[in-house]
Amino acid sequence: MMNYDVIIVGSGLAGTMTALELDKSLNILLITKKSLEDCNSYLAQGGICVLKNNEDRESFIEDTLRAGHYKNKKSSVEILVDESISGIDRLIYYGVNFSKTNNIYDYTKEGGHSTNRILHCNDETGKYIMLSLFEELKKRKNIKILEDTEVIDLIKKENRCFGVITKDNKYFASNTILATGGLGGIFKHTTNFSHIKGDGIAMAIRNNVKVKDISYIQIHPTTLYENSNNRRFLISESVRGEGAIILNHKNKRFTNELMPRDIVSRAIYDEMRKENVEYEYLSMREVGVEKIESRFPMIYENLINKGIDPKTENLKIVPSEHYTMGGIEVDEYSKTSLEGLFAVGEVSNTGVHGKNRLASNSLLESVVYGRKLANYINKNFERFNVDIDLKERFINLEKNTELIKEIIKEDERVKEYIN
To answer: Which residues form the FAD-dependent oxidoreductase 2 FAD-binding domain (predicted)?
Structure first.
């Protein structure tokens, strides 16, 4: 029997930040379905929001609430904003180098924001954040990393969680944290890794853990259209923040590119129906031909490798599933309705995002709430002697996907995108 103080399922920013902020005296197991890098946080391009100054506070809160159609939990939004600076400072402490111009942070802007308040690492923010954190993670002698391991269920006795079951083993813990990400893998058009398909949410539902607003799915307006079933290559919203425009097949603009994502996505989808086409266009030339390669080096290189030159031609784009706002219902410390079980990051529902996430708030939520969760456990940790006689039960993993699909199909906005 393998016992740990804390088990974390998921290697994205939420899970990794939580692991690093937990007390070094705790014995921690971090389990991930694939390799450490195979998380959606690693794919994040645009950036991470931060409160620029005290004068920006009310505007930042209002932008987040407005993007979320005021379905947000305001107290959660206030925590996100008020603790953003300390969260960014912590990332810098772990070695993250955000882009600067003339030694001053280069704040960018995305849809729904009333000002430039987004820090970035060129156009691969998630990659550079995660590489810095993974380097630190591997130094920690109290953290064991288990890759290529699929968790299939929780270990539950009465109303308490005592760990997880994988395909091959059982791992017991005093505290269990789900940081399994969203459910993009069940969609035909998605920016997510295909293996991230709502496992954490399905485990919660199966064990009667409260979930909330699962059908709140965000569709990203601008992903590269290709005639394949592969993960869609995302064209960062910061491209539009820097001036790129959306065009139809008549080369005409038909929407305000800097409205919140759900509005722009719907405008594109409606235009596709109107024109009876499978994609519309994005022109990056308005960013400035000389600036495209220097500001968006990763996007530029990927497009060139696909035979597309954004300096001279329009990009074919299609809206794709991008983010899950709903999830396992938690309080401000990421506690779920099941004692001993926590959820953090995209798998959770803190109430921050409401019905639609404001651009670049996802990485920030993972940092802020991951730190709050770790601090809560550090202050309240209690070790349990686990002695549970588990009855073997067959878990059909395909049922997880079907369970999630049935729930989100209730939302007419998203069901047309599902496989």
So the answer is: 5-363
